[in-house]
Amino acid sequence: MMSTLLDVQNLWVRFPTRNGVFDAVRGVSFTLGRERLGIVGESGSGKSMTGRAILRLIRSPGIVEADQISLEGQDLMKLSEKDMRAVRGQRISMVMQDPKFSLNPVMTIGDQIIEAYRLHNSASKADAYNKSLEMLEAVSIRDAERVMRAYPHEMSGGMGQRIMIAMMLIPNPEILIADEPTSALDVSVQRQVLDIMDKLVKERGMGLIFISHDLNLVADFCDRVLIMYSGRIVEVCDADKLHEAKHPYTRGLLNSLPRLDAPRERLEVLERDPQWSEAPSVSGSE
Amino acid sequence: MAETQTMREWLLAETPTSRRHAKISALYQGWLSFRSNTMAMIGLGILVLLVFIAAAAPLLSPHDPFVQDLGNRLAPLGTDGHIFGTDSLGRDILSRLIYGARITLYIVALVALIAPIAGLLVGTVSGYVGGWTDTVLMRITDIFLAFPRLVLALAFVAALGAGIENAVLAISLTAWPPYARIARAETLTIRSSDFISAIKLQGAGPLRIITKHIWPLCISSLIVRVTLDMAGIILAAAGLGFLGLGAQPPSPEWGAMISEGRRFILDYWWVATMPGLAIFTVSLAFNLLGDGLRDVLDPKAGE
Amino acid sequence: MNMLEVAGLNVWFGKNRDRVDAVKGATFDVGQGESFGLVGESGSGKSTILRAITGLAPNWSGTMTLGGKPIGKKRPKEFFKTVQMVFQDPYASLHPRHSVDQVLGETLHLHGFKDIDARVVKLLDDVGLGQKFRFRYPHQLSGGQRQRVAIARALAPEPELLLLDEPTSALDVSVQAEILNLLADLRNDRGLTYLMVSHDLSVVGHMCDRLAVMKDGEIVEILDVVALRAMDATHAYSRQLLEASL
């Protein structure tokens, strides 16, 4: 029904340590079409590692292994580091949690966007400037000209994140990986940033991988959800049916949330079953 | 269960059973990660060897380092009974190097005791108390920093008189300001952290906070810095010795030996080269050790 | 009698031109044994109120009374026997080189307790950690375990009022549930009074009896939890927050 953009088969991320090899991601398989795919899990579940492994951004001594990570038929595992650099940013972009660490603090925002634009397109300065203004307006930034002259520290978290998204979208990538893009933001701003991402993904027909710990957010925002636990996918479900999830881990997570509309004396505590981490990874292929 | 437990398991236990067990186990884990750094282990090996040589100097040295033999002066390398040759007064260079290790260690130990502790005191107090205290202490530090190191040391030695103790004192006086700077910078970041706020809420006073909470965190980066600076300190001591302001003849201080050998360097190169190599080796060992310690101790570089 | 009364509280940082008013004229009271929430977005001044109460934010004006007695500029040792605080980030609130035993032992020592060993054992049991954690260092603990240690430290002087600064926002949801349950149990067992700061309305709705909504340093509305659940907020901003958190 959908064309497959990304096909990940049997992905492993290993870290050799003093006490043997630690597997952060253990044999994860999934596909991504032109859709919004959510990856949820708790800290240490391997969700961020999965996102980074796709771009082969795991820092040494970490090792990425996979049967294949194919981007429209091209196996990323077989590319050289140099070719990989062309893929990062050009074809797959990534938005991180905290925009403060991703922007250069001593350059104006305008200069950074223009630089990013001219890196990917041969354009004159004036053209690049106009294009950058357009990009900022596309992420709903009012008085974009003032923002172009500002430095990153003058921006609020929400603004910073919008600017990051604008920059990531300049090369018109096929896939956007967003790793907890809104966790550092207040709830009211969160919604705005998500709406912008949603609009852009729809308009451009991109694939989005949305990594988050927030079940409700993912249920709201994505089409399909992978639930990860200790490096494996334990359940795959449609986002609108997340609340009917079957796996005891997913159920446990949902039940442990306090809810305004359903007050309880005590919150349910998740009882972890060692079997969950032993069971084979569920395939997230469509 | 206790019987089957090996020493290694006890040391790496996830759940220490007593205060002492926890401390030893933490030390052992640090040692394990230090041990994996080959270069640092080489540095440590050289320094352990140096300590051993200094301790066993009378047993190891083939000759008395002070006995002159003018008939056999400036003997080349490999001469019978004088592997490293003899100097201008016919003294055995190897024996003098072996005894010189004692002086080098003495200088290193004294400077390592005085300078970082002075720096730690000034830096942490200045950083924690802030305000006027900070301004005054830091300006004093700046004044010391503004002088070239060797020149300041020279001035001190000139005022106090030449000699090994005065040389140590002079080097220490010029070495503490950078440590004060580091300690202050660390204190400023530690001071505003939540765990300091938390202990303040238990009613802890500034003295307790500085000594029990800030010092343990500053000390590791200071140790690293001191070890890396040790090479410079040995060279400064050698420099003072070379200028005739450190150890006085006939004391076999390495710098002073180079200074003596300088006169014959073109015809009898080994007289100056052998102590030079000794200084080089020990300095290098301290640098390697410092690098390894940084990996173990510095929480920022690690993880 | 109210445990804590705060009236016309202003808190500011910096001086003259750089002065930032973090809290402006905050007035609220917390009854004996009550659990009171402060809700708002980042920068709304909610955490600053806690820091002003404990003296960590020294520039404040207005009146604060604890158990009927006014809080002065300098807080005596007895003050910290009544009021304790749990910080937001358990990774930052424990000294990285102190073991659990050292953290709790030093706290007990500072409050003048003599039977330190027995009390450390008891505290660890109370927060559900148990003895095997006693000699561990923070890096050997998970986030939830660290927060339990921080709670044990706050309980050590047997306080009556516990200030909770976003105690679960740095934790996973399943761990959040455990910590919130622990806090609820401790309150029941010991009759504690809570003043809890959070950006998460559902957490406050679960834990608190009443709450104040803050925006830009001012309290815009004080609601009880029944009104909150009925979505019965009068101020536009509180309604906006409520909608965003459903």
TrEMBL record, chain A:
CDD domains noted in UniProt: ABC_NikE_OppD_transporters (cd03257)
GO biological process per UniProt: peptide transport; transmembrane transport
GO molecular-function term, one example from the UniProt record: ATP binding
Key word ATP-binding present: yes
Keyword tags: ATP-binding, Cell membrane, Membrane, Nucleotide-binding, Transport
Keyword Signal on entry: no
InterPro entries, alphabetized: AAA+_ATPase, ABC_Ni/Peptide_Import, ABC_transporter-like_ATP-bd, Oligopep_ABC_C, P-loop_NTPase
Localization (cell): Cell inner membrane
Location of the ABC transporter domain: 6-255
Membrane topology: Peripheral membrane protein
GO cellular component: plasma membrane
Predominant location: membrane
Family the UniProt entry places it in: Belongs to the ABC transporter superfamily.
Cross-referenced PANTHER family: DIPEPTIDE TRANSPORT ATP-BINDING PROTEIN DPPD (PTHR43297:SF2), OLIGOPEPTIDE TRANSPORT ATP-BINDING PROTEIN APPD (PTHR43297)
Protein name (Swiss-Prot/TrEMBL): Peptide/nickel transport system ATP-binding protein
Organism: Litoreibacter halocynthiae
UniProtKB/TrEMBL annotation, chain B:
Keyword Ribosomal protein: no
Single GO MF descriptor: dipeptide transmembrane transporter activity
Entry coiled-coil feature ranges: none
GO cellular component: plasma membrane
Domain called ABC transmembrane type-1: residue spans: 101-290
Keywords assigned by UniProt, alphabetized: Cell membrane, Membrane, Peptide transport, Protein transport, Transmembrane, Transmembrane helix, Transport
Pfam families: BPD_transp_1 (PF00528), OppC_N (PF12911)
Membrane topology: Multi-pass membrane protein
Entry annotated with the keyword Membrane: yes
Compartmental location: Cell membrane
Domain of life according to the entry: Bacteria
Listed transmembrane segments: 39-60, 103-130, 150-176, 222-248, 268-290
Gene Ontology BP, a term: protein transport
PANTHER family: D,D-DIPEPTIDE TRANSPORT SYSTEM PERMEASE PROTEIN DDPC-RELATED (PTHR43386:SF1), OLIGOPEPTIDE TRANSPORT SYSTEM PERMEASE PROTEIN APPC (PTHR43386)
Family indicated by similarity: Belongs to the binding-protein-dependent transport system permease family.
Name of the featured protein: Peptide/nickel transport system permease protein
Organism: Litoreibacter halocynthiae
Source lineage: Bacteria, Pseudomonadati, Pseudomonadota, Alphaproteobacteria, Rhodobacterales
Automatic annotation (TrEMBL), chain C:
GO terms for biological process, alphabetical: transmembrane transport
A single MF term (Gene Ontology): ATP hydrolysis activity
CDD domains membership: ABC_NikE_OppD_transporters
Domain ABC transporter: 6-241
Superkingdom in the source lineage: Bacteria
Keywords of this entry: ATP-binding, Nucleotide-binding, Transport
Pfam families reported for this sequence: ABC_tran
Cross-referenced Gene3D superfamilies: P-loop containing nucleotide triphosphate hydrolases
Annotated TM spans: none
SUPFAM superfamilies per UniProt: P-loop containing nucleoside triphosphate hydrolases
Family recorded in the similarity comment: Belongs to the ABC transporter superfamily.
UniProt-recorded name of the protein: Peptide/nickel transport system ATP-binding protein
Species in which this protein is naturally found: Litoreibacter halocynthiae
